[in-house]
Structures are given as structure tokens and as C-alpha cells.
Amino acid sequence: MYLGHAKAIQYKDGVTTEIKENVVLEETVAIYYNGELITEQIASHDFLAELGVGFVVNEGISATVDEVDVEGDQIYVTGPKRKDTGTWVTGSSGGASSSMTPHVLHDIKNVTVSPASVEAIIAAIQSDEWLQTGGLHSSVLFRDDKLLIRCADVGRHNTVDKVVGWALLNNVDLRECVLGCTGRQPTGMVSKVANAQIPVIVSRAATSSRGIETAIETGITLIGFARPGRFTIYAHPERVIY
Questions:
Q1: For residue 234, what are the contacts with CB-CB under 8 A and spacing of at least 6?
Q2: Is residue 92 scored above 80 in pLDDT?
Q3: pLDDT at 185
């Protein structure tokens, strides 16, 4: 689903060699909500039902969904629609994001992470496809220090939508979970997680000033630059235990 092949010329130590290399497939999907087209975006063609459900919830279009069907590259989601879905903006990597005020999670205090938890989450993010291409983002969902699901995609926003969609379709309480990501965490990404009501984000990458502000406002524990033996906490450190 993720990989294609391309002919290329590799230069190494003064020598050129013709090679056949694995590359990430870039494909398009359309998501409809109650029959209305709400987005067309680049996505890897797996977990498409989960992608549609996760997108609708993460973008604040609806807190719940009734049904999802996939026909080729068309994803049809049905459910109750909120009165105001806000305006849409395009993120730095092309991900659509709603301007609706996200959920606030200050009351979720039972979820904690330790340095060992963070290291396990970061280890689980790395996929075989990423090792082969270096071109795929990945997200994981943990509960009680156990890996529930890992999804990869050409788009970092899509990986979050897929794991959240999987959780919703499998009756997993996202308020008990921790999200691990390879991608950066600007405000659009943090807002997605707040709408999903996940209280902790662990990322290998950076955040942004507005991403930090959004995490502080919504009550999310935001951890970035996570590597074996080190990480940086940008918001709500009270959920990190040592």
C-alpha cells in the first residue's frame, strides 16, 4: 500500500550506480460527511475508514459518527453535524484544519507517562516502511504502556486521523491514551488531539509557539524532541512521573 519503485542514479564516493529504490506512493482521497465533500487530500491508501472517521472527529465536525463506507478512494462518513464547523485553514504541510475551539482536557489527571514510557513510544513509532524510504510519517496509540495501533502515511495529519479513527471504531476510550507521532506539532496538530480528547502527545519532532499555546490552553501534556534518554516537555509537565 505504501511503497512503489523508482529508477535512480546513486552517487557514492566518486562512483555512480544505477539503482532501483523504494519510494512512497502519493495518492488522493476524498472524504464526504453526510453526502457533502469536506476535503480532498493526499493520503496513503490503507486504514481509509479510520482516516475518514478520525478526520471528522479530529477537525471538530462531529464528536461522534454513525457509519463509514469506503468506495475506492472515496470515504463516506455519516453522523450528527455540529452547528458551527468554523472556517478551514491549510497547514504548513497541506493538512486541512478547522478554526473551531478544541476540547479542553484539564480534568484528565489519571494518565501519566514516565521516561521509560516515552522511550517505548518512540521506539514503536519507527516502521519498516520508514526505514526503507525515509518518507513516511507514523503515529501510535498507547494505553497503560501497551501499544494499541500504529498507522503510517505520507501525511503526518493523516496518521493521527487513522489511529484516532481506529480507536473510535474499536470502542477505545481516547481519554485513557497517549499519542506518539513522528511529525511536528503546530497548533493544527495539537487541536486535532484535543478534539480527540487524548491528554498526552509524544513527538520525535519540534513544536511551534502556537502549538505550545494550544497545548497549554487545552490541558495537553506536549512532549517533543523525544529520543532515547531525553525529551523536552513544553506543556503540563504534571503528567510526567520520574
A1: 207, 211, 212, 215, 222, 223, 224
A2: no
A3: 95
